[in-house]
Amino acid sequence: MNSRILAVGSMALDSIETPFGKAEDALGGSVTYFSAAARFFAPVSVVAAVGKDFPAKHLKLLSGLGVDTSGVRIEDGKTFRWKGHYGFDLNSAKTLKTELGVFATFKPELDRAQRRSKTVFLANIDPDIQRAVLKQVENPSLVACDTMNYWIGGKRPSLLKLLRRVDVILCNDAEARELTGEVNLVKAARWMFAHGPKLFVVKKGEHGVICFAKNFTFLAPAFLLESVFDPTGAGDTFAGGFMGTLAKAGRLDSATVRKAVIYGSVLASYNVESFSLKRLISLKRFEIESRYRQFRKLTEF
Amino acid sequence: MNSRILAVGSMALDSIETPFGKAEDALGGSVTYFSAAARFFAPVSVVAAVGKDFPAKHLKLLSGLGVDTSGVRIEDGKTFRWKGHYGFDLNSAKTLKTELGVFATFKPELDRAQRRSKTVFLANIDPDIQRAVLKQVENPSLVACDTMNYWIGGKRPSLLKLLRRVDVILCNDAEARELTGEVNLVKAARWMFAHGPKLFVVKKGEHGVICFAKNFTFLAPAFLLESVFDPTGAGDTFAGGFMGTLAKAGRLDSATVRKAVIYGSVLASYNVESFSLKRLISLKRFEIESRYRQFRKLTEF
Question: Residue B128: its pLDDT value, please?
């Protein structure tokens, strides 16, 4: 089976301040984190656009990790830049500045191989673009999307159309409540199932993940860490481990989905231990397996 | 072994408003919730004070559940009253009014049998009173306490003295951070172990529980509910199921403590489904076991 994942979203240069330090123009973006995590489980091709100011070493780095970056277009203009600040609780970022740059006119065109992708991850971008990409994929068997409050409020009709074509939706608890109009997440899940997705993954940051399927629910706490340096990209890193596991298995049964949630959580837990992608780059497969086993010890009863 | 639990704290009349309804002068108080939960696992004697206005039916009700209420003193004056309000998120109460009544001069005197208690739960009251009670217990083998921001800020030296005599501390995550001065809970646990307790139980409401012991850590999400009507007493109900399980087992090993956390969570999950103690009163042992098994299905991978 073709387990290659097509991931469409942003590549960015992030400037981040946390109580523990700061980084300037560090490699960031949703598909960057996603692919650096997913590559442990399945081959990944990314589709994104960057500006001429995007350091070539970043693309080389991703290629070196085994990520197919041939779908990254280098365009006239500047790379998407995000500047954010985290307080001591580290659970929510304050956006200080967003410069869309070439990302403002991002209109992905898939090549022939990409159109034949079976697994598609549509990172958090304008739902019009998510739909335009998905339309180009001929016969996908597993489609996942992320979204955020900005689109839930501003492009609701388009987002609802997208949902009908999506198997998995990942978002945080506040976004889930805003999208569904339900405070209670069990009720929110029922809403989701009525609007398209078969899997509804609620990312709660340091409070873990709730994964709803039609015939089972899985609750996972977050891995317990003594040092969290930079939560940027945790959600996309989770998505990478999660989707990578599903693509590799080629199934959506309960055991596989549970495993995918834990692998996603393990990857996210490593990611937040350093700035930017530093930890994901140095990460080894045996470390992933080791923390997976620790996860079981932390939660079994 | 003597598994009887001595529980010292408040009995109260609560007036509560939630988005789903309200209750006026309903039975409440920390030892009330605690004992109504703990009684499923071990015999409980409560020590508290109420005013002459306290309906006799409430004490009869607790006795009917098998709780020993002979230690409840009926004093001249009014019962402790709390008036609170919950918004849609239901995770934190807004206190509208507190009338201490006879609770303001609460000075528990234990009788001979109570002094021989082996398991003691000191609910959230003035640490001076918690210590005065504990001094009267001759040779306790398991002592647990709860506390809150009011005492952490106002009676810190007394609270620190109490901690040295305590095996288990239960509090919420904000309280843990305030008491220890550590944002990170792993570091907070290290602080706790250096100040007395062997077990540190962090109650995170809808986000579950983290239980730290010196040689293991256990993470449990909260049971997933479709309807939460009234979160009042959830923490004390959790403590009841938790301490009841420990008292019954007479051990603090990893397997027992994990089981205790889940039973505590199960009891708390039932409690929040109705106003006041309504659900705890009608609750059956088989329902507890059934939800315990559901908990495993929700979390295993």
Answer: 96
Burial B242-277 (b: 16+ CB within 10 A, else e): bbbbbbbbeebebeebbbbbbbbbbbbbbbbbbbbb
Q: Which residues of B touch A262 (CB under 8 A)?
A: 301
CATH number at residue A31: 3.40.1190.20
Q: How far is B183 from chain A (nearest CA, A)?
A: 7
Q: Which residues of A touch B (CB under 8 A)?
A: 88-89, 183-187, 204, 207-208, 210, 216-221, 224-228, 255, 258-259, 261-262, 296-301
Structural Rg of chain A based on CA atoms: 18
Provide the token pair at B35.
């004992």
Q: B162-177: per-residue pLDDT in tens?
A: 999 999 999 999 999 9
Going by C-alpha positions, the residue among A224, A217, A214, A215 that lies closest to residue A202 is A217
Distance between CA B283 and CA A36 in Å, rounded?
49
pLDDT digits 0-9 by tens, B91-116: 778 889 999 999 889 999 999 999 99
Mean pLDDT of B126-131: 96
3-state secondary structure A186-235: HHHHHHHHHCCCCEEEEECHHHCEEEEECCCEEEECCCCCCCCCCCCCHH
- Least Cα distance to B114 among B105, B122, B106 occurs for B122
pLDDT tens digits along A36-54: 999 999 999 999 999 999 9
What does the pLDDT read at residue A89?
72
> Taking the CA atoms of chain B, what radius of gyration do you get in angstroms?
18
Number of residue pairs across A and B with CB atoms under 8 Å?
A: 79
Q: DSSP string of B16-80?
A: EEETTEEEEEEEE-HHHHHHHHHTTTS-EEEEEEEETTS-HHHHHHHHHTT-EEEEEEEESS--E
DSSP β-bridge partners for residue A123: none
**Mean pLDDT lowest among A52-66, B84-98, B243-257:** B84-98
Nearest CB to B298: which of A184, A217, A226?
Answer: A217
The whole domain housing A163 covers: 5-299
A133: left (phi over 0), alpha (psi -120 to 50) or beta: alpha
For A223, name the nearest residue in chain B, comparing CA atoms only.
B219
How do residues B178-234 score in pLDDT, each as one tens digit?
Answer: 999 998 999 999 999 999 999 999 999 999 999 999 999 999 999 999 988 889 999
pLDDT exceeds cutoff 60 at B1? no
Of A204, A219, A228, the CB nearest to B299: A219
C-alpha B211/C-alpha B213 separation (Å) is: 7
pLDDT above 70: residue A1:
no
**Predicted model pTM:** 0.95
CA angle A132, A138, A141 (to 5 degrees): 100
**Inter-chain residue contact A207 with B204, CB threshold 8 Å:** yes
Give the relative orientation of helices A254-271 and A285-299 as an angle to the nearest 10 degrees.
Answer: 110
If one counts the domains in chain A, the total is 1
Cα separation, B119 vs B168, whole angstroms: 11
What ipTM is given for this predicted complex? 0.93
Q: Which residue has the tokens 């994942």?
A: A5
Closest by Cβ to B298, choosing from A185, A219, A224? A219
